[in-house]
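Protocol step 4 of 5: obtain the predicted structure for the target chain.
Materials: sequence only (see below). No template structures provided, no constraints applied. The aim of this step is simply to have a reference model before the mutagenesis design in step 5. Sequence pasted as it appears in the construct record:
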Amino acid sequence: MIRFSTAGESHGEALIALISGLPAGVAVDLDFVNRELWRRQQGYGRGGRMKIETDKAHILSGVRHGKTIGSPIAIEIVNRDWKNWEEKLPVEAGDPAKHQPVASPRPGHADLAGALKYNFPDARYVLERASARESAGRVAAGAFAKLFLRTLGIEVASHVIRVGRVELDRAAAWDEIAAVAAKDEIVLSCVDAATEARMKEEVEEVSRTGDTVGGVFEVVAHGVPAGLGTYANWDERLDGLLAWSVMSLQAVKAVEIGRGVTAAGSFGSKVHDPIHYAAEPTGQPTRFTRPQNNAGGIEGGVSNGEDIVVRGYLKPISTLRRPLESVRFDTREATSASYERSDICVVPAAGVAAEAMVALTVAGLAQQKFGGDSVLELKRNFDGYIEQIRAY
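Step 4 output (C-alpha cells):
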C-alpha cells in the first residue's frame, strides 16, 4: 500500500515528505521532482514568499543509484525564509519578546477554529501548519507517484478553467493540457491564450482593490485502464477517494468528477455516456469506447478506461491586504484581521498540488490491484491484466 505524510511549518526550518509502499526499481528523475516543485510556485498573482523560496527536494532515504529500493522515501525541502524566523519560532522556549503572535484571526482561515481546538492564545501555530506551504511536501510525494505511474503509461496534468468571473468556454484536449504543464513560463495555466489574458485582467483588478480571487482547476489522469477502485465497499470507491484527496487541499471547497455539476441539472439521456464496441483494437486498453466522457472516467466507483477528470473549486485566499473585520484574541475587542504576506491568486498552483493528490490516489490503487515488490513484477502483472481486458 502506498502511503504518504508531510511534516513542517510554513516558516519552520524545512518541510518533510515521507512516502512508503512504492515498489523497488522506479527510476527517479530528480530534475522532474524539482520541476514539479517549481510549477507549484508559479502563476500570476503569487505573493512575495515565492521570490524568497526556491524549492528543491533533498532525498534522505529510499533511493539509491537513481532508483527506489522499496523502503520508505524521506524528502526534505528547506525553507530559505527560516533565517528570518529562527528567533520568532524557536524549538526551545526562546525569548517571548521576539515571538510574533497572530493577534486576530483571519476570516476564512483555520485561525479561530484551530486556536479554540488546541487552546492557543493566538493563531501563530495554526497558521504555520494550516498554510498552503504544506502542499510543497505533497507535490514532492506526488512527483514520485507520477514517476511510478509513468511505468504503466499513465500521466497526470492540470489546467485552469476559471479565475473569478472568467471561464474557459470549451473542453480542452489532453494534448493541450499536457502542453500547459510542459511550459517554461506559467501565467495562469489556461489552454486558451485569449481566455488566459482575460483571467490575468481579473487578477489585476483584485490586486488593485486589495482583494483576492479564486477559481476552478481541472486535473486529468490520462491512460488509466478500466478496473481501478471498486463498488464493493463505500470507502474504496475511486470517485470518493479522489474527492477526499482533492478536497483535503487548502482552500478547495468543492470537488466535481466529470460533468457532475452539469449533470445534476440535466436529463439522463443527455448525461450518460453511450457505450460502443470497436471490432479492432483502438489503442486504448479495451475495445469498449464512448463518444463523450461526462462520467469523468469513473462509473460505479470504478475507472472505465476513459480519462479521469476531476475539478477542484478553490475559494479566494483568506489573507487580504484589505482585512475583514475580526476580534482580538486577548481583549475580545473588534479589530481588523491580521495580515501576513500572501498571494492574490493561486489557482494554477492549487492545480499542481491537486495533480499530486490525484497521482498518489491512482498510484495507490494501481499498486493495490497489480501488486509486486518490484517494478518488474508489478509491470508483468499489469501487462497480463491489460491483455485480459483487451481480449474481453
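Step 4 remarks: The radius of gyration is 22 Å. The chain has twelve helices and 17 strands.
Proceed to step 5.
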